[in-house]
Amino acid sequence: MKTTTVSNLALAAAFAGLLGGTAVRLNAQPLAGHTGVSSVSPAIAGAIADNGQKDLPKHACKGQNDCKGQGGGDKKHAGKNACKGQGACATDGSKPPKS
Amino acid sequence: MNLLELQRRMAEDVRRPLTEDYEMRSFADDGRPVADIAASYISPNSRLSSFERLEIYNRQYWFRLITAVSEDYPTLNALLGQKRFDALILAYLDEHPSTSWTLRDLGAKLPAFLAAHPEFAGRRHRLAVDVANLELAYVDAFDGKQLDPLTTEEAQAIGADSRLFLQPHLRLLELAYPVDNLVLAVKKEMPEVDIVSSAATHRDVTNRAKIPPVKRGKLFLAVHRYDDSVYYRRLEKETFLLLEGLRLGASVAAAASQAFAKSKLTPDAQALLLQQSFAHASQLGWLCPLPGTDVALPHLEMKVN
């Protein structure tokens, strides 16, 4: 038998934990049509990092031609979401329409 | 100038770094006036010169990149302050320009860059590096690949010599500061619109989140995704070493041995912690079979003493 520096008892405990945790996860899986129901407690998962806002636009906007944060146009309109579609990014020097 | 030449010309001009004042440079690397270059292929109009029309694209290109990187590091931005953060991002992009079709990975080397350039962080360098590493881990956990975790049958086949694969979206961090609380505090304080940093737009920074005091203290952290949310889970040092060993390809027994090699825990406490570590890891779906294997991993029959 192979010698290890952790005791067999400890390894047995590890396998027990592995099997137990797997069983808990599989038994706790939400039913079809009920996805999104969290099946672990915060004590297990840890602290939620995104304030529970699952639909943040983060990353989704990358690579898209939104004006957001691009600083297009003059200094007043630079980087503002409001510049979108208002001509602040226009390269022909035209002015944004007055609201 | 044919179409290919025109495209290459404009690509070079648009990607030329800006001045420190975020304006288009007056001279190209070869010393030619950019105004002359712009006039060679862009017509002026009644309101803008060729230079000014080209400058719009030049600035937009860089502002887009700066924003893409900045939005991944809001706490680092708050920690360093706008001026230092802007300087860091510009220097970073100068050394690591965009080379990919996606902006997703543009900021991936920022923590390493910051670690190698302490001048951007001053006295808080190690803290800043920890924050950067955690914010990058968030990005990776946010959309990292997810594999099918172990099934019951696969778990039953695991033995001492088995090797496991960790979820690709799981990131393990060894930190000198408890920056998880710091990042959470900053995010909580910042309205969503402010999380999208705008280093290049000189926005009013009076609403920028304040950095709470943070004392040095070792932290082992798992950053992972569960049920489409990212979590920060604090780990015991031994659990961290165990998972890190598995990640590096060690067998279960070897990883456990390494994890407890310097531990002062009693054998009973070690067994309990091992059990809890594997239970939590498997419950959270962190443990996966090695890719390309069929469960039937070789394992050692254990004799329980």
How would you explain this protein's 3D organization?
- The complex is a heterodimer of chains A (99) and B (305).
- Chain A has 99 residues and is mostly helical.
- Chain A has two helices and one strand.
- The longest helix of chain A has 21 residues, at 8-28.
- Mean pLDDT of chain A is 59; it is low at 33-37 and 54-93.
- Chain B is built from 13 helices and five strands.
- In chain B, the strands form two sheets. A three-stranded antiparallel β-sheet of chain B has the order 2-3-4. Chain B has a two-stranded antiparallel sheet with strand order 1-5.
- In chain B, α4 runs antiparallel to α7 (125-143) and α11 (237-247) packs antiparallel against α12 (252-260).
- The chains are: A mainly alpha (99), B mainly alpha (305).
- At the A-B interface, α1 and β1 of A face α3, α7, α8, α9 and α10 of B.
Write the layout of secondary structure elements.
The complex is a heterodimer of chains A (99) and B (305).
Chain A: H1 8-28, H2 42-45, E1 47-48
Chain B: H1 3-14, H2 34-39, H3 50-70, H4 74-80, H5 82-95, H6 110-116, H7 125-143, H8 152-156, E1 165-166, E2 171-175, H9 179-189, H10 192-195, E3 219-226, E4 229-235, H11 237-247, H12 252-260, H13 267-283, E5 287-288
Antiparallel strand pairs in B: 1-5, 2-3, 3-4
GO molecular function (chain B): DNA binding
Keywords (chain B): DNA-binding
Domain Putative DNA-binding (chain B): 6-114
Chains forming the largest contact: A-B, 62 and 91 residues
How widely separated are the two ends of chain A? 82 Å
Shape of chain B: elongated
Helix coverage percent of residues of chain B? 40-55%
Element-level helix/strand string of chain A: HHE
Radius of gyration of chain B: 25 Å
Structure classification of chain A: mainly alpha
Signal peptide (chain A): 1-28
Region (Disordered) (chain A): 63-99
Protein name (chain A): Low-complexity protein
Keywords (chain A): Signal
